[in-house]
What we know:
Number of helices: 0
Low-confidence stretches: none
Amino acid sequence: MLHKHWLxxxxxxxxxxxxxxxxxxxxxxxLFCPKCKREMLIHVKQLNISIVxxxxxxxxxx
Length: 62
């Protein structure tokens, strides 16, 4: 049985709403952190996270 892990924000190290397993592979995944309110593109392979690009724009409020 494979264990699940919470995907942590690479900026503030808080939990996001995504769970991953050790065999999970993500390429150009748009990750949003609810705590620091940042969005970034990440790669995930074998539980290693690398930031590809941080979003240039802020969230729009109405």
